[in-house]
Design goal:
- With 351 residues, the protein is an alpha/beta fold.
- It folds into 2 domains: 21-220, P-loop containing nucleotide triphosphate hydrolases (Rossmann fold, 3-Layer(aba) Sandwich), CATH 3.40.50; 224-343, Helicase, Ruva Protein, domain 3 (Orthogonal Bundle), CATH 1.10.8.60.
- Helix content is 46%, strand content 8%.
- It has helices at 27-30, 35-48, 66-80, 96-110, 122-130, 139-152, 172-185, 198-207, 209-213, 226-237, 254-263, 268-284, 292-300, 311-323, and strands spanning 54-59, 83-88, 156-161, 190-196, 217-220.
- Helix 5 crosses helix 6 (139-152) and helix 10 (226-237) crosses helix 11 (254-263).
- It is elongated.
Length: 351
């Protein structure tokens, strides 16, 4: 495709190429604020002030924005001068505990806590964990070491991504016990936040009830409303703009975004995938808009994906079972602005 072909849309290029928040260094600029984010911000503020410690689980399907919220928390911690350890639990991670210990060491070095001729006392315990050679470690002792490190560096964050991958690991039980011990050790000023699929939380509840009982807040990510979908596309479009004062979602129109969001089941990643396809299709047919006709042509070429209709209701129902409250699929809408998220700051309430 020739360079500059996106000029007809007032864009320098396709803004939807990078679908993954993990690849964005400035993820907070593209983040769409939901009610869950207001609640997480309140928790973080209490941790910064060392008023409380907290353990939070973010639950949702692939592409729902779980990792993005960890990255937002890490960016916020960096801005506020807090110590943060972010660790990806990959399906092929050979030794989860050792990998986490290594990440602790890297974070301590990056934060300037490791000097040439001196190091904090808690780092000795972390260094010992880096040397473990098998999964037969003592999870209680390991949890105490990590908990102490978090207490000594408070305000501090432990951010664990994709904890559901533990289910395929020989460390599944041992590491769950380690995290449980960490939750027992931490003091005010420490925030443990992990993300996972609903299946892992269900497994945890059955197989490690003591750990599950220590989770202070569980947030099940809802699907995007049409207004939130517009805001997400507007934020992705903004850096590629050649022309100012255009409709924030141009070349899309509101009806087209609504149809795309319904087809995506409110899932942010799927929405961006479909936006990518539709803007390419509109370009190939030399259209100046991405309207419903363009969207329908693209959707007609794609096989139906499970999980489209009823995703928001399904997630709300899951949230109700996890949190013990009536389910609801209705949420306040968001006005589409690019400069800031204009959702009202309502605290996420649990009964």
């Amino acid at each position: 495709m020739p360079s500059g072909s996106y000029d007809r849309f007032g864009l320098t290029g396709n803004p939807f190429r990078d679908l993954s928040s993990e690849n964005l260094s400035d993820v907070e600029l593209y983040h769409v604020n939901l009610e869950v984010d207001d609640a997480l911000r309140t928790i973080r503020d209490e941790v910064y002030d060392k008023e409380n410690h907290a353990v939070a689980a973010i639950v949702g399907p692939h592409g729902s924005g779980k990792t993005e919220r960890l990255l937002v928390a890490r960016a916020d911690a960096k801005e506020r001068g807090a110590f943060a350890v972010y660790f990806d639990v990959l399906a092929k991670t050979p030794m989860v505990l050792r990998g986490l210990a290594e990440e602790f060491h890297k974070s301590a070095t990056a934060a300037g806590l490791v000097k040439t001729f001196s190091a904090p006392g808690w780092l000795k315990g972390i260094s010992a964990l880096e040397k473990i050679k098998d999964t037969g470690y003592d999870p209680i002792s390991a949890g105490k070491v990590i908990g102490l490190a978090l207490n000594e560096t408070a305000p501090s964050f432990l951010l664990l991504n994709d904890l559901h991958n533990l289910m395929e690991s020989s460390e599944a039980d041992a590491f769950a016990k380690t995290v449980q011990e960490i939750t027992d050790v931490i003091k005010p000023g420490v925030f443990i936040m992990f993300v996972c699929y609903p299946s892992y939380l269900a497994w945890l509840t059955v197989n490690h009830a003591p750990f599950a009982s220590r989770i202070n807040r569980t947030f099940v990510l809802p699907g995007l409303t049409p207004e939130e979908a517009q805001l997400l596309l507007a934020k992705k479009l903004l850096p590629k703009r050649l022309v100012e004062d255009l409709d924030p979602i141009y070349p899309f129109d509101a009806e087209a975004v609504t149809v795309l969001n319904e087809a995506a089941g409110g899932n942010p990643r799927r929405l961006l995938e479909l936006a990518d396809l539709t803007i390419e299709h509109a370009l190939s047919r030399r259209s100046f808009r991405v309207d419903v006709n363009v969207v329908q042509e693209v959707l007609a070429q794609r096989p139906a994906r499970p999980g489209g209709a009823g995703v928001r209701e399904t997630i709300a129902s899951t949230a109700a079972s996890v949190e013990g409250r009536p389910s609801t699929s209705s949420r306040p809408s968001a006005a589409v602005t690019v400069s800031s998220d204009s959702r009202s700051a309502k605290t996420y309430q649990e009964t």
